[in-house]
Amino acid sequence: MMEILKIDSLNKSFSGVQVLKNINLSIQKGEIHAIVGENGAGKSTLMKIIAGELECDSGKIEFDGRMVNFSSPLEAINSGISLIHQEFSLVPQLSVYENIFLGREISKKFFKINFVDKKSMKKETLTVLKRFGISDIPVDSKVKNLSVADKQLTEIAKALSTNSKFLIMDEPTAALTLRETELLFAILKNLKNQNVTILFISHRLEEIFEIADNVTVLRNGEVVGTKKINEINMEEVVNMMVGRSLKNRFPDKVPHEIKDDPLLEVKGLSSESFKNVNFKLRKGEILAIAGLVGCGNMQLGESLFGLRDSEGEVSLEGKTIHLSEPTVAIKNGIFLVPEDRHDLGLILQLGVRENHSVPNLDFLSKFGFVLRKEEKKSVRSSINYLNTKVSSINQRVDNLSGGNQQKVVLGKWIARSPKILILDEPTRGIDIGAKYEIYKFMYDQVSKGVSIILISSELAEILNLSDRILVMSEGRITGELNPKNSTQEDILKLAVKGKEN
Ligand SMILES: Nc1ncnc2c1ncn2[C@@H]1O[C@H](COP(=O)(O)OP(=O)(O)OP(=O)(O)O)[C@@H](O)[C@H]1O
Ligand SMILES: [Mg+2]
């Protein structure tokens, strides 16, 4: 095997805080090399340096036999390196094909004037998508109208369309379902056969063991070690990541009382994305709403928070409520932790503190003044609870690692006393230790009498945590399962019901 990338004594600090310390890394041509580590370990930062988006403070990088010092992403792309971001970098207002060709548009001459050749770009996009077996993305749609999964696939297609020989994927599967992940893995194996080298980041360790040849573990900005995947097991990887052993992935179930009379009752609720939804949510219950991407469960969650129009009847503690906007939901103690944290969950330019207090000003302010002391206490307690890694409570949210951003979103709702928490993919991008904390948080909440609606594509999570499972397919509820005697297959069967002809 030939070495394609060699990193020697690399260091990087952000405003005095060292986030990468003396990194040494060697990547062989044609391998799939996994990079793992807890939230904030430095994975994305290292990837951005390799891809020319950030400069290191010191250290040497050798790529494909020569020393490199990329000063822009374009230079890296021209050398054959492309990076698929953890957080989407697509332009929401542009279509799928315009995004794929952004910055390198195909043009045609017409009387000596250059025109953007939309037709060719569209055709080329379809070819790229087809080559990698991605068939059902509407290439004309504006990216802002795509599901998170389709955004991710567009991002991947964009990188693949530049014919890179070194592909970096920062948590590409976080937003994908099982089936889409398998599709992606087929694509990766295909690329590997074409001698493309792949760096692959994921918090789902099963995936690492399925796809990678080698794995490098980062902890607190340092390389803990590199291992061949068939010479290590999952427990050992976790040990290297967190520096201690973590026996169980799910905390012991906390017995919690579920009241019989419903807290929330939904009757004949319909919208663009779901039809005639009926269910009862009982006090102190974790109700999972499972389904494949596009089944309508996410939109249902958003409607119950007043983010989307819907028709039908919703009553809370026996009283009809009109969830016309989020303020109504919040007033009634209903909160949503959304799937797409960048769209709905966070104001990226503001600090952790402001993000935390903006939705909580009703109890963190008096006569229009923020109660600074209360505010600090509240932020700190959420940060401690979730073990969020921030340099200070004033750190800008866009400078946090992906997983820690997610924790800020969760933390601001924890500060309130909710009646109902709607959690949409709450552990996406969250490291294994923090996942455990979030599961414990959920048990803690239900044992206090809070009800949780859990929307998740991780079937293990659904089966382990919930008290009851509703499954949706094509906008309808296709069945109810008891997690105690159900399997992943049972969920999947109901999730595709009505889809097969
Ligand atoms: N632009 C920046 N300014 C200041 N600090 C930053 C910046 N970018 C990253 N950091 C800090 O560097 C550290 C490493 O972040 P990084 O995004 O590399 O982590 P990660 O391993 O990718 O985590 P995750 O799994 O949560 O995505 C974090 O503590 C983060 O807050
Ligand atoms: Mg990251």
From TrEMBL:
GO terms for cellular component: plasma membrane. PROSITE patterns: ABC_TRANSPORTER_1, ABC_TRANSPORTER_2. Gene3D superfamilies: P-loop containing nucleotide triphosphate hydrolases. Keywords: ATP-binding, Cell membrane, Membrane, Nucleotide-binding, Repeat, Translocase, Transport. InterPro entries: AAA+_ATPase, ABC_carbohydrate_import_ATPase, ABC_transporter-like_ATP-bd, ABC_transporter-like_CS, P-loop_NTPase. GO terms for molecular function: ATP binding; ATP hydrolysis activity. It is found in: Cell membrane. It comes from the Bacteria. It is a peripheral membrane protein. Pfam families: ABC_tran. The keyword Transport applies. Its main location: membrane. PANTHER family: CARBOHYDRATE TRANSPORT ATP-BINDING PROTEIN MG119-RELATED, GALACTOFURANOSE TRANSPORTER ATP-BINDING PROTEIN YTFR. This is Sugar ABC transporter ATP-binding protein. It comes from Mesoaciditoga lauensis.
